[in-house]
Amino acid sequence: MKYVVILGDGMADEPIEELGYKTPLQVARKEHMDNLARMGEVGLVNTIPNGLSPGSDTANLSVLGYDPNKYYTGRSPLEALSIGVNMKDSDVSFRCNFVTLSEDELYDEKTIIDHSADEISSEEAQELLHYLEKHLASEVIRFYPGTSYRHAIIWDNGSMNVKLTPPHDILGKVIKDHLPNGDNSNKIKEMMTLSYELLKDHPINIKRREQGLLPANSIWIWGEGTKPILKSFYEKYGKKGAMISAVDLLKGIAIASDMKNINVDGATGNIHTNFEGKAEAAINTLKSGDDFVYVHIEAPDECGHRGEMDNKIKSIELIDTKVVKYIKEELDNIGEDYKIMILPDHPTPLSIRTHTNKPVPYLIYSSNNKIQSNLCYDEISGKESGKVILEGHKLMDYFFS
Length: 401
Known about the structure:
The chain is of the alpha/beta class. It is built from 15 helices and 15 strands.
C-alpha cells in the first residue's frame, strides 16, 4: 500500500460576498478532487489543539501525527534545522522575516504592509542578511539565511519568556501595540529598529522600488523556540516517509522526524511554484521504495496572506490539475493499492489575511475501498458529512488504518 498526503496550505476559507457567499474551495474548478470525494470520505478535522496558536508549525505537526502539546517547541527551531543549524540545548531560535513597513513615520508608528517584502528572492535576501549581520550580530546572536523572506536568528542562552507577534497576523496594522515584550525585548526591538535604518536606502531596496517592488526595509523577529525532538516517523508508523516542500518549516519537520527531504527545482512556496515537479517527485519516490509522501504546497496560504482572491482560487485549481490528477493517474498505472488524503493545515481567510483555528475539510480516497457519495470536497461538504476528528494528531493513524 502506498500513501500520499497532498497538503494545500491555508486552502480553507470563509464564505465571501463577492463569491456569492461561497468559499474559494467551493468556486474553484477542481473536478479531480471532487471525483475523489464522491468515491471516498470527506469530513472535518481540528488540526490546532486548544490553547495553541493556529500556525503552519502546530498544524502540520498535527497532520503528521505529532501531538503539538507534546512535541511543539517553537516554529523557528524547525526552520533552523532545515538550513543546517545545529542548536545547543541552551540556544533559542527566532524567525527573522524581511518585511515591508510604511516609511514616513517613527518606527513605532509604522504600519506593516507586507510580511514577505513582496516575496523577496533568496539571493536578494541573503545579501541583505549578510549586510545586517555585520552590524547586528554578536558573540551570542547569530544570523542564518533561509529561503526568500524566511531566516533565522540563534541566541545563545536566550530566553523563551518573551511575547512576539507573527507579522502575518498584523498586516495593515500599526506595529506599536505588537512590538516585543518580555525578556530581552529592548534588544530585539533595537535590532528591528536599527535594521530599518540600515535597509531603507540599501542599493537592493532602491532597485526594488525602481522595479515597482516593495522594499525589504526591516526585519521582524518572532517564532521563538528551543531545540526540537520528534520521534522518528518510521518508528512511529513503520512507513518510509518523504517530504516535498519549498519551505524551511516543513523541511525541518522532516529532518526532525527522520523523513527524506526531496528538493524540487523551481519550488518556490508561492503560486509560481513547480506544481508538476512536485507531483512527479512524489511518484518517483514511491516508485523507488518509499511508502509515504507528504506533498506540501504553500501557494494558497501565501495568496490568503496577500489578500489575493483570484490567485487563491487559481492555486487550488492548479493543485487539482497539476498535482491531484497526475498523482492519481500515475498511482493507477503502478497497479498497487494506495490511499490519497487531501486537506489544508488550517484556514487562511482572505477577509483577515491570517490563520484561524477552525476545523478544516479532509478527503481520504482508498483505491481498494471506494465509497459512493454525493459530496464534493469543500468546507460545507466536510460539515455535512457529519464526520469530525476532534484531535488532529489522530488523523494520520486513521489514514493508515
